[in-house]
Amino acid sequence: MLKNRMKWNFLNHDRDLPIIDQLLENRQINDSIDKEQFLNPSLDHLNNPEMMDGMNIAKVRIEEAIENGESILVFGDYDADGVTATTLLVETLNELGAMCDYYIPNRFTEGYGPNPNAFKEAKQQGFDLIITVDTGIAAVESASTAKELGLDLIITDHHEPQEELPEALAIIHPKLSPEYPFNELAGVGVAFKLAHHLLGYFPHQFLDLVAIGTVADLVPLLGENRVLVHHGLQGLKTTKRQGLKALKEVIGIKDDVTEQDIGFGIGPRLNAVGRLQAAYPAVELLLTDDPSEAQKIASEIHLINQERQEIVTAITQEAETIIEANIEKMKRVIVVAKEGWNEGVLGIVASKLVRHYQRPVICLTIKPEDQKAKGSGRSIPAFDLFENGMEIKHLFLQFGGHAQAAGMSLEIDQIDAVRDSLNKLAKEKLSDDDYKEQLDIDATLSISSVDLNIVETIQKLAPFGMGNPKPIFHFKGTTKSVKQIGANKNHLKFDLITSKEEQGISSVAFGMGDLVKYLTPETPIDVSANLEINEWNGMKKSQLMIKDILIDDFQLFDFRGSKFWKSEFKELNDDNALFVRFQPSTTSELFSLIDADQLNEQPIQSKMVVLVDMPNDLSEISTLLNTIQPQNILACYSVGDDHFLNSFPTRDDFKWFYGFLMKRKRYSKDQDRKLIQQHKGWKEEKIEFIINVFYDLKFVTIFNGVVQPNQDVIKKDLTESNVYQNRLKEREVQEVLYYSNYNELKKWLKSQVEHSSSSEEEIAHGF
């Protein structure tokens, strides 16, 4: 039995609909017109930029600046959304003939967003107008500085507006535009709207940039975002930008470009530059027309990303060590801090920790020189990090972001207060289930129903992302051809089948290599998975990408006679398993062994029972299992030799030996043993057992190693001998518990867990 790691939430489970309609309804798309627009995203579905507040004011001022030859500064952000937005607006202004340049603050020396010093420097360099992209909505102080300096400020942003808005000539923000129908544009999406309005025509040439920034910033891929990304992915396939062509080549992206290529390839590399240094190379890459320069910058960015990955791994390991040592303080919300951590990657580290611990996480780097801490937070769906952070805003020097992600700085002596306050809020607002990762399952499918056509039909819902997750399906079956894959054997590959004859669906479970021992033969298994097409050597076939596994059935882990079970079940200890012995002589230095008869008198419930040896009688194990009723059993016992099975005499064997004895009148071990062994091929143990049974029945006497027939014999059946009966029980024990095949043993053990039938009945009907 294996519990699912996530909470499975079945959507539309009882609806009998075509799969495409079911998936759309799961996404609250019910109207026929909405369905048509969702499945066929058209640029005609985009909203008019003029509907957004501040748009016309911004256009008039920008055109005035161009006409008067004023210098315009595009002030961007250092992430993928910010650098694509910066590139887009710079190219727009250049096309319009503006005198312009761009500026991106250094994460490490200036922090996030506009700052007064940067604006003062801009004024000194002769800039008259500043336009922010993907930033600025929280820059109240910087906006005041701009006004004092006589700088006009236009803010374009999409981040959550706070209580006080900056004073600017114009603020272009979808959430501050009541008449604008769509509120979830990325920063690059807002910049695109401004570019469209300024140029007076629809700028198809910027759709590749919009797709990158929108997917990388994890905004919902619905409404306008879906349209922009759908067409932007097509634009990326044939992009003429030398920088993107070079970056695609370095990454290994060919032909079609998917949202996954952005999310796991292009986006992280553009982000990596600003995480480790100034973000200018990322903008330079997107702006350059020189193929050789593009290749050079792309290679540099690729190396920077590799460095970023190494730093993330190191910090994550350090953070986990701190968390494990202070787990009670971070029971509901994790706030972890250390001097020397690179603040540029703390958002990624926080995301990894959220997935591992299923808790909201804030990661901070401590800066002792100014007694401050700075970092990023990521959250679980049930805990709005922005909303809860705003409730304790007084503890921060700076705070901003979204429901699931935030950035902040604070005094070092406020770290404990922030941790305590967030844990208190989480305790008040969250239930235990809220901490378990939610897995929305779109439908239950049969294995036989899956083919390339259904996978291609599902693909019509792409691009997938926030708000439109890749569909997850539920399947039932059993597994075959199970193996661990990957350099560290940390992934699983198997076929999911419904019958032995069926080929089944090839399935891959990343990061689940340790579950290989649970995929026991013919055990019913439930999986939740994405459906994909795997193409290899020109051949296409459907494939499951496993998200979670559930085994809701009694399981036997068969390690009979094996010395390696301890290495396979390293997680087992005295707290989560019962290590049961039937023989008092059995010992262990690793585990606390519990006597079976003790458990029968004082039952201890446990999901896992480890049988370290075998009983003398099947009734002993029957009583134990019916009392404990474990979900799983690990059989790891062995036999010293197999004479019970191979040497158990037949009635004819007893008859022959008795006739031999009556004829010879005596049997001497020293003189006659080898004679019988040569003549009958019997082992010494077999001869000794026959003699012991005869002695128990008083058929013979034994004196000084010499066996002689008893003259006063009372006729008895062999079964009246206790020696014979005990050996018969031991033989039965080994037949059932050791020499049976896997399915026979599992069936018998399961019957003992579920019923109180006698061992004799189980043997008679089970074998």
From TrEMBL:
Lineage top rank: taxon: Bacteria
InterPro entries on file: DDH_dom (IPR001667), DHH_sf (IPR038763), DHHA1_dom (IPR003156), RecJ (IPR004610), RecJ_C (IPR018779), RecJ_OB (IPR041122), SSDNA_exonuclease_RecJ (IPR051673)
GO molecular function (one): nucleic acid binding
Record keywords: Exonuclease, Hydrolase, Nuclease
Domain (DDH): residue spans on this chain: 71-214
DHHA1 domain boundaries: 332-427
Domain Single-stranded-DNA-specific exonuclease RecJ C-terminal: from-to ranges: 555-749
Domain RecJ OB: 441-548
Alphabetical GO biological process terms: DNA recombination; DNA repair
PANTHER family from the UniProt entry: SINGLE-STRANDED-DNA-SPECIFIC EXONUCLEASE RECJ
Family indicated by similarity: Belongs to the RecJ family.
Protein name (Swiss-Prot/TrEMBL): Single-stranded-DNA-specific exonuclease RecJ
